[in-house]
Write a structure and sequence with these properties.
The protein is an alpha+beta fold. The protein has one domain (about 30-125). The chain is built from 3 helices and 2 strands. The chain has a two-stranded antiparallel sheet. The longest helix has 16 residues, at about 30-45. The protein is extended. The two termini are about 20 Å apart.
Length: about 130
């Protein structure tokens, strides 16, 4: 999997210590959605972006969303997992303030979040969540 070297940085989940694992009820995909989900899952498995977990404590469903161009986008429903994160008292500032703050600097870099080169791997302790 391309991305940032995990020795430099890895994504860690700061879940509340008292949180108990939640397994969402299984949602069935029928017809075309089931076929598309299987294709997308196979692509992710082949690319090494995901792996099969046999005995998971956290279980989330996938959701297929149709784009304006008619293609399908596969998402993961992290609703329950998001609820057990501590709330941030200092949210990110608005993008306007960030750009204005960089006004006196010689270089300003924007990260293309849609490219695969900027993938940050999950910390091994948090991967199964």
């Amino acid at each position: 999997m391309p991305g940032i070297d995990p020795r430099i940085n890895s994504h860690k989940l700061s879940i509340c210590k008292e949180a108990r694992p939640i397994a969402q009820k299984k949602r069935k995909l029928v017809g075309e959605k089931e076929r598309i989900a299987e294709e997308e899952t196979r692509k992710l498995l082949d690319a090494g972006f995901i792996r099969e977990v046999h005995y998971t404590t956290w279980l989330t469903n996938i959701v297929l969303v149709q784009k304006n161009n008619g293609k399908w986008w596969m998402c993961t429903d992290y609703t329950h997992l998001n609820r057990v994160f501590p709330k941030d008292a200092y949210p990110l500032p608005s993008i306007d303030r960030l750009v204005d703050g960089a006004a006196d600097h010689k270089v300003l870099i924007f990260l293309d979040a849609y490219s695969g080169y900027n993938q940050i791997r999950m910390n091994p302790a948090d991967r199964e969540k």
